């Protein structure tokens, strides 16, 4: 059982990932180092931090078996090097389908040991004018139940991007201290819904929300919304990074969690 800390600093990394794995890992390494030097004890990377391909199926070339591969080795080594909890955004893992991968979030503890895995279950689809996305082309939806792990800030729930639109998903995780939402929201949907959905998840679950995002114009032509953010249990924004590479940082405060839940005990008032 992980010991609970009264104050636990967390950070969300924002990247503008490219089509080159090496470039992306170098970008991530620089930002992880900066966040760790700023005092972060848990660091979360965004969705697709390792690849933003020109085509949907480009990520298949980078897929790894669980427990082996350069992306997982990178994440484990970064966690060990800086002695931090590291949430590896998402990486492509093998699935039973030859032509699809799992879009998976892996968590490593400060020793570099993998302690949690969540495979994205809600797959994004969007079409408006000339803008169109269909994740089912290259991604197989995860079969695992909602996943959480015990961090020094308390129970921490894992989710990925489009999951944000499904509040029942977070209710299934139970009472949490922190929700993590690595994402690559499009500029169109992000500008409309990103902040309001994240604040809603924080308010209704009375917990902190940490959302690392892709944020900028990518070489494949895609533009992501960015605005990586940390939100407290009252729905107040603690830090935000609008666009471009960077990070947000702040503390999960057990006293703040307790004060919000005591003043408005909505979690205890639930009847369903």
TrEMBL record:
<keyword id="KW-0378">Hydrolase</keyword>
<dbReference type="InterPro" id="IPR045254">
    <property type="entry name" value="Nit1/2_C-N_Hydrolase"/>
</dbReference>
<dbReference type="InterPro" id="IPR036526">
    <property type="entry name" value="C-N_Hydrolase_sf"/>
</dbReference>
<dbReference type="GO" id="GO:0016811">
    <property type="term" value="F:hydrolase activity, acting on carbon-nitrogen (but not peptide) bonds, in linear amides"/>
</dbReference>
<dbReference type="Pfam" id="PF00795">
    <property type="entry name" value="CN_hydrolase"/>
</dbReference>
<feature type="domain" description="CN hydrolase">
    <location>
        <begin position="8"/>
        <end position="254"/>
    </location>
</feature>
<dbReference type="InterPro" id="IPR003010">
    <property type="entry name" value="C-N_Hydrolase"/>
</dbReference>
<protein>
    <submittedName>
        <fullName>Nitrilase</fullName>
    </submittedName>
</protein>
């Amino acid at each position: 059982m992980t010991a609970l800390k009264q104050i636990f600093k967390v950070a969300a990394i924002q990247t503008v990932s490219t089509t080159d794995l090496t470039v992306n890992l170098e970008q991530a390494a620089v930002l992880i180092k900066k966040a760790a030097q700023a005092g972060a004890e848990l660091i979360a990377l965004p969705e697709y931090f390792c690849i933003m391909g020109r085509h949907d199926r480009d990520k298949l070339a980078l897929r790894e078996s669980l427990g082996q591969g350069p992306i997982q080795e990178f994440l484990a080594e970064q966690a060990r090097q800086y002695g931090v909890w590291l949430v590896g955004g998402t990486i492509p893992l093998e699935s039973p389908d030859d032509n699809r991968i799992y879009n998976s979030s892996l968590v490593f503890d400060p020793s570099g040991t993998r302690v949690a895995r969540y495979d994205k279950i809600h797959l994004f689809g969007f079409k408006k004018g000339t803008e169109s996305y269909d994740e089912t082309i290259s991604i197989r939806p995860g079969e695992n139940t909602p996943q959480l792990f015990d961090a020094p800030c308390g129970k921490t729930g894992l989710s990925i991007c489009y999951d944000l639109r499904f509040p029942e998903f977070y209710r299934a995780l139970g009472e949490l201290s922190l929700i993590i939402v690595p994402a690559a929201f499009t500029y169109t949907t992000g500008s409309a819904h990103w902040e309001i959905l994240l604040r809603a998840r924080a308010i209704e679950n009375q917990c902190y929300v940490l959302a690392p995002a892709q944020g900028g114009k990518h070489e494949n032509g895609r533009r992501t919304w960015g605005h990586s953010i940390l939100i407290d249990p009252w729905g107040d924004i603690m830090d935000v990074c609008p666009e471009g590479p960077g990070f947000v940082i702040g503390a999960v405060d057990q006293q703040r969690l307790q004060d919000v839940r005591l003043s408005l005990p909505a979690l205890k008032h639930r009847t369903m």
